[in-house]
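User: Predict the full complex structure for these chains.
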Amino acid sequence: MRMRKRELSSLALVLSTAALLAGCAGSGKSGGTANEDDFHESGLPIVDKPITLRIAGTYDERTGSNWNELETIKELNKDTNVQEDWNLVPGTDWANKRKITLASGDLPDVVLDLTNSEVVTGGAQGMFIPLEDLIAKYAPNLTAFLAKYPEVRQAITAPDGHIYSLPLANMSQYKHADGNSLWINKEWLKKIGMEMPTTTEDFKKMLEAFKAQDMDGDGNPNNEIPLTGIYGDSLYGLGYLFGSFNTMDNTFIVQDDKVQFVRSTPEYKNAIDYLHSLYAEGLIDPETFTQNSSQLIAKISSGKKASVGAFFAWSADQNTNADYRWDYGSPIIPLKGPDGYQITPRNNLQLSPAMFVITKADKHPKATMRWVDRAYEPELSLKLREGPNRLKKMDDGTYDIIENPKNYTAGEWKVKETPYNSFVYGFSQEMRDKERLPKPKPGQLDPDFDEWYQALIPYMKSWVFPDILFTNDQYKTIEQYQTDIQAYTDKMAAQWITKGGIDKDWDGYVQTLNKMGLSDYIKVYQDGYDTNKKNLEK
Amino acid sequence: MKTSVAWKRIVRNWQVYVLLLPVLVHFAVFQYAPMYGLQIAFKDFIAIDGIWGSPWVGFEHFDRFFHSYQFWNTLKNTLLINLYELIFDFPIAIVFALMLNQVTRLRFKKWVQTITYAPHFISAVVLVGMLFIFLSPRTGMINNLIALFGGERINFLGEAAWFKPIYVLSEVWQTTGWNAIIYLAALTAVDPQHHEAAIVDGASKLQRVRHIDLPSIMPVIMILLILKVGHFASLGFQKVLLMQNTLNIDSSEVVQTYVYKTGLLGTQFSYSAAIGLFDNVINFVLLILMNQLAKRLKQQSLF
Amino acid sequence: MAKPETTGHAKIPRSRADKLFDIVNYTLLTVILLIVLYPLYFVVISSFSEPTAVNSGSVALWPKGFTLEGYRIILENGDVWSGYAHTILYTALDVALGLALMIPAGYALSRRDLVGRNWFMFGIVFTMFFSGGMIPTYMIVKDLHMVNTIWALVVPSAVSAYHLIVVRTFFQTSIPEEMLEAAKMDGCSMFRFFFRMAVPLSAPIIAVMALFNAVAQWNSYFPALIYLQDGSLYPLQLILRGILISSQLSAQGADSGIADPDSIVESQRYAELIKYALIMVASVPVLALYPFLQRYFVKGIMIGSIKG
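Assistant: Here is the predicted structure of the three-chain assembly.
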C-alpha cells in the first residue's frame, strides 16, 4: 500500500513538470529513472527523498576532515536533501589515494582536486561524464560566471569540446600581478646613502655596498647576506630580475601567438649573465640553490637584527620578523635593464580547472549539478573563499572584513568553516569590489592590494602561457620531454650562475636541447595554444 | 620411481607441510594471485578497460626509459650509492653487533642498543632537515668547526661530490643500530662451550670474536648479504629527493627519483611498472648470481 | 659490578690483551653512542623550540624560544588518541598473526626433510622482486571484503618474505641437526618437537620478529590510506600525516596557482612547528618496546636443553 502512495505522489510530480522532464530524459544516460523522478528542476529541495553523494578529496588540516560540520557546507546543503559522505585524506597522500581510486574502478560519485591530465584522460575514457549540458540546464550560477569569464570556460573545456570538470576560480584582477617581487632593506639603504635602486646597475652597486660594509653593526662586515632567494621557486625565486632583460622566468612564453622556450633565447642568456656577475662578487647567497622555504624564512626572520639586505618574496611583512618587517620595501616596478627593458608578467588569474568531476558511478548527476552550482552563487562563493566568519554584510550590500581573533592566525581564521582550496567556488572581481578592504598604510603595500597591481599595469606583458587543457597524447609527449629538459636546463643555469662560462657553453647547450627533442616539446605547446585560440575565437 | 619416493617422504613428513601451509596460502592469495598485474608493464594501462583489457604496447615503456637522456646517469648513481652502502653500511652493523656482544655490563649494553636503534624512527623529512641545519655553510656546526680550525667553509649540499658521502653516512647513522638487531639475536645462539674451550686454550677476546662469534653468525651474514645484493638497483627515493638540488643533480638523480618526476603529470602506471620491473629483473639476476656464488663457496644460501 | 654473565667465562682472569680489548671496545662504543645521541637530542630540544630558531641553526645545546605549541597542536587533536588506540590494536594483531604464521613456516623451511624446500624458498624470494602492484592487490583485498575493515591493514602485512627468510635462517643455524635426530629416536613427533623444543629455543628470534612486525605496523600508513574510507579507523601515522602538511612536497601546489602565498607560508610554519614534536609523539611509545624485548636475547638456554 505504501508503495502505491509513493507512486502516486511521484506521478503528480511528473505531471507538474512534465514538459521539462521530457527534455532531460534524453540527456540523462542511465542511473535509474526511479531516482530521477523526485528530482526538481528548480527550487528546493533538489530531491524529495534525501540522497547521499560519496565524494573523495583532500582537506586542509586547519579545516579538518569533518566537512559536514562546516558552516559553508551546511549552507550549501541547506534544504536540498542532498547529503555527502566525504572520504577525505591528508593533502600529501591524496595523489596516491586518487590514483588507486581511479585505477581500481572503485569510483565514488564525485572526485575533487585532480590533475588536468587525469580529467582529460578520464573524460575521454568515459570514467567522468560530460558536464556541459548539465551546466546549461541546471547550473545557472556557474553559467552566469562562465559567461562573465569566457577564459574560465575555455580553461575547463577539453580539446574534444566537452567539459568534464568544474573549476575553482578567483577572478580578482589584482591576481594578474606576479607574486614574486624584490624586497630591500630601506634602513641599510639609508646607511649607505642610496635611494631605492631603479636600474640593474644601481642594484648591483647597492649589493656591493651591502657586502663591503658592516651593515648590521655587529663589528663583523662579513656576516651579512646581500641577496637571497630560492632558485627556481615561483614565489621566492629570482624571476623578478628577468624582467629587466625583456623575458620571464617561465618555461614557455607566447609572443605574437608564437610559443617560445625561454631558456634557449638570447634574453635568457643575458639574464643569467647578469646573475653570474652578482654571484661572482659574492652578492648572492650560495644557499640560494640548496635551501628550501623554511630555511629561507628562518634566515630572513630569526636574527634580532636583520642580516639580509634583499630577498625575493611576495611580501616582507609575512616572511620576516615583526621587529623589522617594515624595514623592507619593494621597488614594486621592475628594475630598468642595461637595454632599458623593464617588464613584468601579466599572470593568469587564480584558476584550478580540475577541481570537481562527476563519475559514471553517480546515479544523480542532475541533482549533483544543481547542488554544486550553489557553490558558485556569488555570496556563497565569497564565503567559501574568505571564510564566513570574516565577513559582515552591510546594508549597502558590501562586506566588512572582521579582524581575526587573538588565538587564530589570519590563515586559520580564513580557512575555518570552509573547505578552502579543496572544493570549488567562483569568485569575481565584482565580489572583491564589495569587500571593504583595509587601505594600505604608506610603505606597506604588497601584491594583495589593488594599488600594487595598478602600479604594475604599464609594465605588464601578456606573454604568460594560458591555462588550457591538452589532449591525452599531448600530455604524454609533454611528460616525455619535460623532466629531462627541465633538469638539464636547471643544472646548466645553476652552473652558469655559480661558475660562469655561459658564452663558451651556449652553442653546445642549444644543440643538446635540440637533440633532447626541444622542437617537439615546443610544438606540443604551440599546437595546444593554436587549438585553444581557434576555440576561443569561435 | 623417483616421484613415489618423494611422495612417500612427503606423506611421512606431513606435519612439516601443515606448519608451512598457512604461509603458502597467504603468499598464494596476496602475492601470486595479484601477479597478473605485471603485464601492465607491457601495456598502456587504461583504467576503464582494466588490466586485462588495456592494449598491449610491447616494450615501448622500456624503450622510452632506455633511450631517455638520464638513463645511464641514473643507473650509475643508483648502483654506486648501493655499492657504497654495501662497503660501509653493511659491515659496520656487523662490527657494531660483535663489539656490543662483548660488553658484559648489561646496563651499558641496553642503553647503547636502545639509543642506536632509535634513529630508525626519524622520518626522511626530519633527517634531511637536520642535515641542512648541521651542514649549512653559514651557520651549520660542522662548518663552524671547519672554520674554527681555519678551514674553508664547504657548501656540502651544493656540491655534487659530497652528495653520496653524505647520503651514505647519514644512512649509517640511521640504520646501524637497527641492522645490528638480527646479528645480536644470532649471536645469542653461539654455544658458550666453544668460548669456554677457547679460553682454556688461552685465546684472547679478539681471537674469540674472530674465530668463534664471527663464523657462527656467518650464515646470517651471508643471507643478509644475498638479500642486500638483491636490492642493488633500488633506493628509497624520498630522502634522495629531499636532498636533491640543481647543484648536485648530476650525482643525486637515481632511477626512483627520476621515475617519480617523469610520472608527476599523469598516472603513468605502466611506465613506472615497466621501470620497476626492469629494476627488479636486475635485482633478481644479481640475487641468483650471489646465491649461486655462496653455494659454490659452501656458504649459507637461500635455495 | 658485572655479574658473571650467562656466557660464564667471566671467572677466568683477564689477560692484558683482553683488558686492552675491553678498553678499546668501551671507548669506541661510547663514542658511537655520543655520535648517535646528539642528533636524537637535537630532535628532542627542537621539539620544544621556535621553528625559525631551529632552522637558522641557533639551537644547539638547549631549546631556544621554548614552546609547547607543537605538542599542543598534536595532542589537542582528538583523533590522535583514537589513532593511538587503533595503532596499538593493529600492532598487537599484526604481531600475533605474524608470529603464528611465520614461526612455524620458518621452522618448516629450515628442515632438510621438507621435500621441495628450495622450490618453496624460490617461490618466496620471487615475490620480493615481482609483484602485481597496487591495483590487483587492492582488487583481491576488495574481493575478500576486507576493504574498510581492520583486516586489510593486518592480514596482508602480517607475513613478509624478508622476515620469513630471517626466521628460517635462524632455525637453520641455531637448532643442531643432531638434536632433531635424538628427538626422533625418542619417538617425538614433529609437532611435539616444534612446540616443545624449537619454540622455546627460539625466544630471541620470536622477540626480533615481534619487534620487526610491530615497528613495521606502527610506522605504516599506506595500507590505511588505500584501504580505509572511514576516517574513524585511521591509525596514528595517518592522522599525524594529516596534521603535518609536509611542506616540501605540498608546496608544489603553489605552482599550480591554487594556493594563496600567505596560506602556504602559514601551513609551512605550522609544519615546521610540529615536525619534531611529531617524531616524539609517534615514536616514544614504540621505542620503549625494544628494551622490553631485549630480555629474550639471552644466551645459553640451548646448552642446558641439549644436555638435559
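The longest helix of chain B spans residues 71-101.
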